[in-house]
What we know:
It is a single chain. The chain has about 325 residues and is mainly β. It contains two helices and 30 strands. The chain has one domain (about 5-315): Pectate Lyase C-like (3 Solenoid). About 5% of the residues lie in helices and about 40% in strands. The strands form three sheets. It has an 18-stranded parallel beta sheet that branches. Mean pLDDT is about 90; it is low at about 1-25.
Amino acid sequence: MTLVRQISLLLLGFLPLGTLGCGKEAKVLTLGKQTLTGDTTWQGMVQVNGDIDVPPGVTLTILPGTTVKFKRIDEKSDQNLYGVDSPYYPQAELIVRGKIIARGTKEEIIVFTSAEIDARPADWGAINLLGGEGNIIEYSKILFAYNGVHSHGASAKVNHNEFAKNGIGISCKKEEEAPSVPWFGKISDMEITYNRFTNNKGGIGFRNSKAVVSHNLFQDNKFFGIFPKDEVQAEISYNEVTANKKGIYLYQAKGLTIHHNNIYDNTDYNIAVAEAQDFDVDARQNWFGTVDTGKIEAMIFDKKDDVEMGSILIDPVLSAKVAWE
């Protein structure tokens, strides 16, 4: 196998750690469960065998070109630091109560993926952001996680990344379940731009959060592209949303605008409301793949289909595709 082929497989998560170069093994930093005691930098090859906790006041920096692989564990493993109840995961994860700066480049991306030969979604938990601010994740591939990036009351810039083969690419919410934690009652504040969400179970899900979701691709996700829930302060604009089961799925969602997106050729509906969505949503000025009003309406599920639901307001629709990249 050529070196170029080995590197390609490694970045995609299909080559074991330590196999790189002409018979030479790359040096691997192997970590079990632990709480970082000071600012820490990772580079090269890192294998994570248990929860890594980044406590308040500590920054984990991941340098361009680094590959972080997570060993598959379960809820009975002694490698879980804080148990497995929300907001924690039974799989190995990065628990970021301080700050993470994972800033790759176009030429040297960062990879977060499974350490397993038979890699599958949910092999590892998440980059789990709990209440911290100033987090940055850029120019990364995030593969085979339960939730690629998960935020409880944190703020983050998540830009220029690829999310594939995850349960959900990004999930964020206001912390309302644990009154004793410092981030209780704090909303997530997310900038999510120029990412690609493909072949996940879901692209983005966010609840009671603030978000700018712009210039992203949502394609071939099993259940949904974008799933806003409850009170949100969200602008969804200049995205490409296609070939998902539901393009945009709304559950009690209010406080958001959906405009200047390309939302077309999703399999169930381009935009749909769930049973609890009993108020209107502003989805004006989007391109739905056609100017045929009948075809557009056929791919939208709202008050016209169930009188107890809210309406999805789409007029005026755009007559041409939006330049979104």
